[in-house]
Amino acid sequence: MKKLRLALAVAVVAFFAVLTPSPAQAYPGVTIEVSERTVVGGDNIRIRATVDPDVNCQWSLTFMGVTKTGSGSSITRFFETPEVDDVEYEDAVATCVYDDTDPALSTMGGGGGVGSLGATTSIATVTQTATGVGTQTLLPEDDDDDDGDDDGDDDGDDGNGGSGDNGGLLPNTGGERLAWLIIGGMLVLVGGGVVVASRRRDA
Predict the structure, then answer these.
(1) Cα 83 from Cα 196, distance rounded (Å)
(2) What is the DSSP string of 37-58?
(3) pLDDT (tens digit, 9 = 90+) per residue, 114-125?
């Protein structure tokens, strides 16, 4: 008789354990996604956080010691950034606090006893928290190394052009042009004189 009562009690406990879900079953696997952006230090940065699945959050979004709040399934806020000398990486942390509803069975009235199931469904609310992190990249305003390389290339081009194209003028590859012009003119005159003299002689 004792074994029968013990088996019956275990069966009743197992029955209610199967029917009663845990609080985490209402919103399984809530995740927060935080955008990751790259901006020049000193510019404002736009950071967005979203929750999956879609729940109503009480948000807090923190970046570089500044926290901004909001509500809903997402939050978008602008933050100021400092000027930097080197590339820096800063984390933005988003926290979502939401109410998780847990359908739990509770026994109300009904005369008691094992055969009487006077059970009705009640809703239990449990506060849950989910957190996400996104890394933001801050760049220096001017990249001296890149500018130096560009300037060096430009200077090299100018130097090569200066020695080869005579400061933008056409290259002088024909030798002394004025001297050859004078020599050519003299040959024309001499040739013309020879022709005139030979015609006079023939006449």
Answers:
(1) 88
(2) -EEETTS-EEEEEEEES---EE
(3) 444 454 555 678
